[in-house]
Amino acid sequence: MTNRERHQHRLTELLSLARAHQSQYLDDLAEIVAIDSGSFSPDGVNKVADWVQARLEKLGFTVDRQAPTQHNDPPLGDTLVARKRGRLTEAQGGRRILLAAHMDTVFDDGAAAERPFSLDGPIAYGPGVCDDKGGLVAGLTALAILAEHAAPDYAELVFLATPDEEIGSPVSRAVTEATARGMHYALGLEGARANGDLVIARKGVADYRLTVTGRPAHAGIEPERGANAALAAAHLLVAVQALNGRRDGVTVNVGVIRAGTRTNIVCAEAELLLEVRSDTVAGIKWAEQAIEDMARDPAVAGTSVRLEQTDLCPPMEDTPSARDLLTRAKATAKALGFDLGATATGGVGDANLIAGTGVPVLDGLGPVGGADHTPQEWLDTSTVAQRVTLLADLVAFLGDIGNSR
Description:
By secondary structure, this protein is an alpha/beta fold. It contains twelve helices and 17 strands. The chain is elongated, with a radius of gyration of 24 Å. This is Glutamate carboxypeptidase. GO terms for molecular function: carboxypeptidase activity.
């Protein structure tokens, strides 16, 4: 039997198993959509974590629950990391694969009761049905059918479920980065785009603060003795915004400006809060250098400017290694009878943090859905069996690299 024939045989078996699990998938999805798990609802997030833990333990995973190590107000939920060792060592071709999803939604408590899980034909509705509960359940279903199929082995499978992705992963970031280090591949379980595309790249985001210091003076008696920080900040605002369009893939936005205390005082201090988004680390560094150059030469004599980076979420770059994952996914999709595309997005997620550790990542491997973060959020359940099969096949292929090529 040729490699292609073996692959097609495996896909046929995995697809049959995925279809057999369709009813259970819908029951599971309805169950966790019924749990309010907004980022700031730790009890709800931890109920989802309990649910995920039970299913992973049933599949033979060892589960570690990590509560936030620092005080948070409001409090946040646990981060879940589950591991299952395989038979192979790395020397034998075994690989460590990370599957990543998040348990939190953007919705407040009460949303699940107001908009309970429902089906209109194949389209499912409910808070978090696509982002990211549909992908979370898809990942667990893929692991279940792989266990039934006795697919090719691996060194280790790791399942990561985070409680705070929707608010920038403040408590799970360190866990995510530590978990990702040493992985060979990562598969993100966010929903596929509304047109079915996977996600090959996500822009990174760097947040900055520009603090302008001037010199106060009486605005009516001796304004000439002052140095107006607000005026210097206004020049900076215009100059920083003018960076847009100067480099492909880079956007800059000054979102907040604060200045002054009274109209009769020459403004002594001003502050600008801004973000830089870029599809590459190089693009972020380019923008930062350009802003630093502006800060060294303020437009108003007597003022000075200090630039601080307050946060950084690295880009998930479109790399050759990620493209290799996409090539395999496209081949599997074709064998399953559908075409598969990929897109880049300006939105960030946990896949950014994983990619920042140097691990090749392919995201959007959940079922097809859309209207995330709105009451109209939807998931096309007719895509579940194929997308679960695609995910399971990727895990099987990547896990035993020595026998898969």
